[in-house]
């Protein structure tokens, strides 16, 4: 098993000392996730989640110094959720007044064609995030509300919006253009945007640093396999392909989403199955993927079902792996040479069976897995390919909150997060 040391270049964040922190907020349609991050050391100082906002009872979880507190509260809206979270910091620690909160970073799903970098939030930026709501109707309104409330409650620190789509704004036109009537496409912003950009950027950069190489010198395929899943092909640090499109529905098979599917399935279901467009939207996004095929979307349960002889679960895994192999092969063709394949996120970091199956039978492409190196869950970056393989297969845990925190510092103070 080889764990490679990071190159010991000076840490650009050390100027902040050990006590500076960034509060990272992820406001979903019915949840608020938060993490207080030390951008120097990279650790989460505290984190929490308020779920089922607006329902009769909301589960709340706050973790600080190894202690997790869970309770049920009544949380009417996002303003109440953030007030509650700030109250939990006061009650359970750490005291935000002493944590030196340097900035608040907001994860925003869709930046459209307007945002290719993180930006300092002002009224104009907030209005633009709202204006992008037709492209992400579930996410952007919630993101905008979260920003609005946080600015009101924490008006004395800068707020930065970090977009899931930003990294992929540099995709070449031939990769982001759908072969659709150009007038319709232009009029309605129909193109591929890509998502999980913060993770793809962080993981490809981290893989290079762990290897002691410059990201500019590497061709990397990142497989972000969480409940949502996406792949990217990154040439010398610049993305040249990614699997998600106008929305996060395109591409890989996911926990509950179809990924790629013939668009004519929509016409078929609307014309012949009595479904509305909203029904199909719900079907494709929430009742499909691994869950649709097997009844479960958690891979731990999927493996348990397979062990019990469940054929639907086996087929779900087979479809999932087959789709991944198609993406790895096509991205190898796009890149011409693959130096690194990096697995990340919940499934990619924890599921050694998935990693082994994706790379199985690919020795002809220079891709292989070493069973011993691959065994088990991975919490630190690790190489899992054999020494003889041309492509380095790695597991690189993603740290999206840290990446967002560092991008905030870049915006607020002009430091380079990729340094
Ligand atoms: P997201 O951020 O998209 O919600 P995560 O990256 O947290 O997702 O990944 C969640 C998924 O990771 C779970 O649904 C589960 O399938 C998978 N997962 C988590 N832990 C394990 C594990 N130990 N073994 C296999 N799969 C796991």
TrEMBL record:
Keywords for the protein's UniProt record, in alphabetical order: ATP-binding, Cytoplasm, Kinase, Magnesium, Metal-binding, Nucleotide-binding, Transferase
Biological processes, Gene Ontology terms: acetate metabolic process; acetyl-CoA biosynthetic process
Q: What is this protein called?
A: Acetate kinase
Ion transport in keyword set = no
Q: Which domain of life is it from?
A: Bacteria
Is this entry keyworded RNA-binding?
no
Query: Where Mg(2+) is bound, by residue?
Result: 26, 400
Q: Which CDD domains match?
A: ASKHA_NBD_AcK_PK
Q: What terms describe the molecular function in GO for this protein?
A: acetate kinase activity; ATP binding; magnesium ion binding
Listed binding positions for ATP are: 33, 224-228, 298-300, 346-350
Q: Which cofactors, by name? A: Mg(2+); Mn(2+)
Checking HAMAP family in the record gives:
Acetate_kinase (MF_00020)
Which InterPro entries does this entry report, sorted A to Z?
A: Ac/propionate_kinase (IPR004372), Aliphatic_acid_kin_short-chain (IPR000890), Aliphatic_acid_kinase_CS (IPR023865), ATPase_NBD (IPR043129)
Q: What does this protein do?
A: Catalyzes the formation of acetyl phosphate from acetate and ATP. Can also catalyze the reverse reaction.
Enzyme Commission numbers on file: 2.7.2.1
Compartment(s): Cytoplasm
Query: What are its GO cellular component terms?
Result: cytoplasm
Tell me the subunit arrangement: Homodimer.
Pathway named in the protein's UniProt entry = Metabolic intermediate biosynthesis; acetyl-CoA biosynthesis; acetyl-CoA from acetate: step 1/2
Family, according to the entry, reads as follows: Belongs to the acetokinase family.
Catalytic site: 164 (proton donor/acceptor)
User: At which positions is substrate bound?
Assistant: 107
Task: Tell me how the cofactor is bound.
Answer: Mg(2+). Can also accept Mn(2+).
Q: Which residues are listed under the site Transition state stabilizer?
A: 196, 257
Q: Which reaction equations make up its catalytic activity?
A: acetate + ATP = acetyl phosphate + ADP
């Amino acid at each position: 098993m080889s764990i490679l040391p990071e190159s010991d270049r000076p840490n650009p964040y050390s100027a902040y000392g050990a006590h500076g922190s960034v509060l990272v907020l992820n406001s979903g349609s019915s949840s608020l996730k938060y993490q207080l991050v030390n951008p120097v050391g990279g650790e989460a100082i505290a984190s929490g989640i308020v779920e089922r906002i607006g329902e009769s009872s909301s589960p709340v979880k706050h973790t600080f110094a190894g202690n997790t507190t869970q309770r049920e509260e009544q949380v009417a809206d996002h303003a109440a959720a953030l007030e509650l979270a700030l109250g939990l910091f006061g009650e359970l620690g750490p005291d935000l007044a002493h944590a030196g909160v340097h900035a608040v970073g907001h994860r925003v799903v869709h930046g459209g064609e307007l945002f290719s970098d993180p930006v300092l939030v002002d009224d104009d930026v907030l209005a633009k995030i709202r204006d992008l709501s037709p492209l992400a109707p579930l996410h952007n309104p919630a993101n905008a509300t979260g920003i609005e409330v946080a600015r009101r409650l924490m008006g004395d620190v800068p707020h930065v919006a970090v977009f899931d789509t930003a990294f992929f704004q540099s995709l070449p036109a031939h990769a982001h253009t759908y072969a659709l009537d150009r007038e319709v496409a232009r009029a309605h912003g129909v193109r591929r945007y890509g998502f999980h950009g913060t993770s793809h950027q962080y993981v490809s950069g981290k893989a290079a640093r762990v290897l002691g190489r410059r990201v500019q010198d590497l061709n990397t395929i990142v497989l972000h396999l969480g409940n949502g899943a996406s792949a990217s092909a990154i040439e010398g640090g610049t993305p040249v392909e990614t699997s998600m499109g106008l929305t996060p529905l395109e591409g890989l098979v996911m926990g509950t989403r179809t990924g790629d599917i013939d668009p004519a399935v929509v016409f078929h279901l609307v014309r012949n199955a009595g479904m509305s467009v909203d029904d199909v939207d719900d079907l494709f996004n929430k009742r499909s993927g691994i869950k649709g095929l097997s009844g479960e979307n958690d891979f731990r349960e999927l493996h348990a079902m397979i062990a019990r002889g469940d054929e639907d679960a086996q087929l779900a895994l087979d479809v999932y792996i087959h789709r991944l192999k198609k993406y790895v092969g096509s991205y190898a063709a796009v890149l011409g040479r693959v130096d690194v394949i990096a697995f990340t996120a919940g499934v990619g970091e924890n599921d050694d069976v998935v990693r082994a199956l994706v790379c199985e039978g690919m020795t002809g492409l220079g891709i292989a897995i070493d069973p011993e190196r691959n065994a088990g869950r991975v919490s630190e970056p690790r190489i899992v390919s054999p020494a003889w393989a041309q492509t380095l297969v790695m597991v690189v845990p993603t740290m999206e909150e840290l990446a967002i925190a560092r991008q905030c510092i870049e915006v607020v103070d002009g430091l380079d997060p990729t340094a």
